[in-house]
Amino acid sequence: MSSPDAAAIRPSSHSFDLRSLTYITHVDDNLCCPICQSPLVDPFTTSCRHTFCLACITDALKVSKSCPVDRSPLDTADIKMAPVVLANLVNDLTVLCPNHALGCSATLSRGNVEGHLKEDCQYVTVDCPGCGEKIMRKDRQGDSEDCVHVEEACRYCSEKHRKLDMKSHEAVCSAFTSSCRHCGIECPLSKILAHEATCDEAIVNCDSASVGCPWHGPRKESTTHSVSCPLTHLRPLLEEHNSRIANLERENKLLRRRLEASLTARAQTDIIQSNTTTALDNQTLRVLTEQERIRSDMERLYVSMQELDMKQNTLAMFMGENMRTQEEVAMIGAAVNNLQTQLHGLQLLTIRRQGMDQNGAGNRSDGPSSQVKRAAENGVLGRAGRECFSDMFETRD
Amino acid sequence: MSTFAAKRLQKEMAKIHQGLAPGIFFVNSPNLQHWQMDIQVLDSNPLYAGKTFRLNFRFSNNYPIEAPEVTFIRAPDREIPMHPHIYSNGIICLDLLSSGNGWSPVQSVESVCMSIQSMLTGNTKNERPEGDEAFVLREGRSVRDIRFVYDDPTV
């Protein structure tokens, strides 16, 4: 596979046809050659970019010089090695050893198949070192150079067999014996196990061993023992009891498990309930505290409301007082006005009297009192003024 | 039979058991080299409507490099379809079935059946090929030996 030229690589570069391998896992259809429909072996790509096994496309081109997929004209010179990544992908697929049918159980990646066949596989046909006849590798006796087809005598029966067949012969050889462990009788290897199962000398337990008989001895004596063994008669009863006890134990175990389960469930509900109660208590407590706080708040509010009431009353009182004071002030104001008017009138009078004094005695009849009188008549003087001057008017009149 | 051809046919058989295109049925295979398939024409072509035809496949050691021998055969309730390229002895004149002509190793039993199915679907002539009687009389020849001249591009 070093050269990309198809002509340089013949399908025969493999020791056998890799296309006939059995794959263990499902292989993606895209990794399969359209001709053999098996995973690609030595993938080669055409100039029209279709990929086939080198052997498949070479064979196909011998029959028809066109691409099997799109029928475009094609020649051996037009095919090139496919990218290495594709070859790696298909060489990593796991396959059964080609000698699977013969007995080899190896599974390996496809790239290692040839190495396995060359070195390891015991089911490969190799030349017999002696006569050159084809034999399986496993039948070659190690590295010995002896011909496996030479007949030799069996070690046990002296029958003549080929070296090749000796193993299979020994398995059935009637003379290849082994002695019984109990009675020492010689018996062919193939029958020794069957013999030991019935050997009279074999040490066996009493049939009632299961219900507590401690006796054990050679099989031939077991019959006489079982006749005298007290447990033989009791055995059916004891066995029945045993089975009943076993049943009861099983039932007990089941019930206990159920009880435990229900207890656990119960405990869980209890926990949940107690949790709920605590939660409820907490809630009530919170509500009560809240209520208490609200009550004290209310009381505080009531007190402050009373205070406010008192204050309002005082304020009303003050306001009444204030009104009275205002009235008084107004009266005082009015009195002051009166006094001012009177004062003004008096000033005028004074000024007129001074003027008359300067003019002489002639005008005496028309004194200040007549001026005041006129003023009073004219309403110039207010009530207070009139009161003040009333004495004067009376004296004058 | 070569392991190569056997392997390929086993693969096709496995695929067939997973399912086939509509109107194509596997009948039996007495051995790996010899298969029988049934085909039906799916549309309402009056020539073939409601009928089923049996195909006989024979594979050489060199399959799929070499084309299989495919012929129609008679069986109970199975006749040879009327077609200008199908002789009354069941031999089919189709370039697809000839190595070195229309055959490609990429083809399979199923794809051959589909090609023959569409060849019937497209036909409107209720007739046998020219010289059918004379051709059928010269029996005993292997289908492989017949050199057809594929001159009709309409089928």
Question: Can you give keywords for this protein?
Answer:
heterodimer, A: 397 residues, mainly alpha, Herpes Virus-1, three-stranded antiparallel beta sheet, two-stranded antiparallel ribbon, 9 helices, 51% helix, disordered C terminus, B: 155 residues, alpha+beta, Ubiquitin Conjugating Enzyme, four-stranded antiparallel beta sheet, 3 helices, globular, zinc ion binding (chain A), metal-binding (chain A), zinc (chain A)
Q: What does the model show?
A:
The complex is a heterodimer of chains A (397) and B (155). With 397 residues, chain A is mainly α. Helix content of chain A is 51%, strand content 10%. The longest helix of chain A has 130 residues, at 230-359. Chain A is elongated. The N and C termini of chain A lie far apart (170 Å). Residues 1-12 and 388-397 of chain A have low confidence and may be disordered. Chain B has 155 residues and is an alpha+beta fold. Chain B has one domain (3-126): Ubiquitin Conjugating Enzyme. In chain B, a hairpin with a 2-residue loop joins strand 1 (24-31) and strand 2 (34-40). Chain B is globular, with a radius of gyration of 15 Å. The model of chain B has no long low-confidence stretch (mean pLDDT 87).
Helix content of chain B: 10-25%
Order of helices and strands of chain A: EEHEHEEHEEEEHEEHEEHHHH
Helix-strand topology string of chain B: HEEEEHH
Shape of chain A: elongated
CATH class of the domain at 6-120 in chain A: Alpha Beta
Low-confidence stretches of chain B: none
**Reported CATH architecture of chain B:** Roll
* Protein chain pair with the most extensive contact, residues per chain: A-B, 18 and 18 residues
Zinc finger (TRAF-type) (chain A): 116-160
Domain RING-type (chain A): 33-71
Region (Disordered) (chain A): 357-378
Biased composition (Polar residues) (chain A): 357-372
